[in-house]
Amino acid sequence: MSLFNHAVIEEFRANAGQVGGPFEGSELILLTTTGARSGKPHTVPLGFARGDGELLVVASAGGADRHPAWYHNLLALPLVQVETGAEEYEAVAVPAEGARRDELFARIVRAEPGYGEYQAGTRRVIPVVALQRTHEVPSQEGGIAGKLLDVHGWLRAQLTLVRELAREEPSGGGAASLGLQLRQHCLAFCHSLEFHHRSEDAGLFPYLEQQHPHMREFFRRIGAEHATIARLQEELVRALDAPGVGFSERVERMSRELEAHLDGEEARLLPVLRALGA
């Protein structure tokens, strides 16, 4: 991170999103992506425009011939954090495509002509990225049980969205037809699911097995389900870039497997977690 960006970020966070200097009077957000190679958080201050219920950012890089690092990051790991000064929330970053990108870019240029000058000075098509806020599904329950239900609710909601998007795609489901909207939400779901199951396998389940040795066989079965779902998840990710693969069918199979898994896990674990009182 440059010293300039670091200073802007500190000022932004210290003053509820207000900054001075060259940005005085401008609206900014802080966008935090995950490094595609490093896996570390990468925060940048960005100007933005308002779309239809979402914020739009432009990967201009000052008119450079290469996309900025944060854009490469969000293509690899679409789940991002957005800070507006008033709130912080999670979003899925979706680059606009084709005519929609051109329409959004033209609208932004009318308000901020400098972006048009950037585009005129480079051969690359400058991306416009929609930050689509993810919908939280609060469980209204506290403790570890509530956290489990919150994560499961988020995963169910994202998978439902992916299913709906997959059904809207042209038949075939190959790379030529799978849009970035579907791709980005699918990757966000898959990465979150993988992280959740790894956390359970490495942390929560060993702890609970120590407290409840009689549940050992249950945890072995759940671990096997995790392995099956991980294979389906890998197939989904590969299908995003594999022409001719039936993507919608893979999503439907994932839905069946995951719903059964989550229902069974909740039925057995929630009483145990509630008894912990934590």
Write the layout of secondary structure elements.
Blueprint: H1 3-14, E1 28-34, E2 41-47, E3 49-50, E4 55-58, H2 69-76, E5 79-83, E6 88-95, H3 98-111, H4 114-120, E7 128-133, H5 143-168, H6 180-211, H7 216-239, H8 247-276
Antiparallel strand pairs: 1-2, 1-5, 3-4, 4-7, 5-6, 6-7
Helix pairs in contact: 5-6, 5-8, 6-7, 7-8
Instruction: Point out poorly predicted stretches.
Output: 171-177
Mind describing the biggest β-sheet? 7 strands, antiparallel
| Secondary-structure element string | HEEEEHEEHHEHHHH
Strand percent estimate: 5-15%
- Please tally the helical runs, counting DSSP H or I stretches of 4 or more residues: 8
N- to C-terminal separation? 39 Å
Structural class: alpha+beta
- Strand order, main sheet: write it out: 2-1-5-6-7-4-3
How many whole angstroms does the radius of gyration measure? Answer: 21 Å
The count of DSSP E runs of length 2 or more, i.e. the number of strands, is 7
What does this structure look like?
With 278 residues, this protein is an alpha+beta fold. The protein is 55% helix and 14% strand. The chain contains eight helices and seven strands, in the order αββββαββααβαααα. The protein has a seven-stranded antiparallel sheet, sandwiched between helices. α5 runs antiparallel to α8, α6 runs antiparallel to α7 and α7 runs antiparallel to α8. The protein is globular and about 65 Å long. About 3% of the residues have low confidence.
